[in-house]
Amino acid sequence: MSWAALLPELPVLILGRLEMADYLRFGSVCRSWCFTVAQRPCPPKPQIPWLMLSDSKRDPDTRCFFSRPDQKMYEIQLPEIHGRLCVGSSEGWLITVDEISELHALNPLTGASLALPSVTTLPNVGGAVRDSDGQITDYVIVCDDLREVPYEVERMRMCYYAKAILHPSSAGSGHTVVVIYGQFNSALAYAGDE
């Protein structure tokens, strides 16, 4: 009997019980198992988190992860976060900042992504300044004394977010994101179901 001839539910059950390294190798068994992985029906079982290392200069679409349990480095293709900064991770999710300072959540193993609220919804962000082509060049920051100060997109991207975490809601559907942000990284904002 071939691996491909198994009932379609069985590979999904197996996939959900694997350690991360085996989860990543799962699709190499046969075409039908590769298809199962491509559909990404479930994350791997909970385990000790991997450490994502800083960007690789040789391939901007690849990230290196260190697995403490087996003391090995793994490279994972993540074109979805090309050019983004990582400002947090939790529960298997990476929180990244794109080139216009917007936050995104991505699960690198399942490929799932979540839409996060726009930077312009933060309490002290008064809006965005656009050039003649419609590209965002600055954000308007409203200071405590109600002055409006322009904040360059790249400065916002590099300095405005100190930390972000994502937590699944207790109801089982949806997530809550919490962000430490601001000029002095002293403000806290959250959005979500709870």
TrEMBL record:
Q: Boundaries of each KIB1-4 beta-propeller domain copy?
A: 65-191
Keyword annotations of the record? Signal
Q: Which residues form the signal peptide?
A: 1-16
Does the UniProt entry include the keyword Signal? yes
Iron as UniProt keyword: no
- Looking at the record's lineage, which domain of life comes first? Eukaryota
**What InterPro entries has UniProt attached to this entry?**
F-box-like_dom_sf, KIB1-4_b-propeller
Query: Would you tell me the protein name for this molecule?
Result: F-box protein At2g05970-like
Gene of this entry: LOC105035838
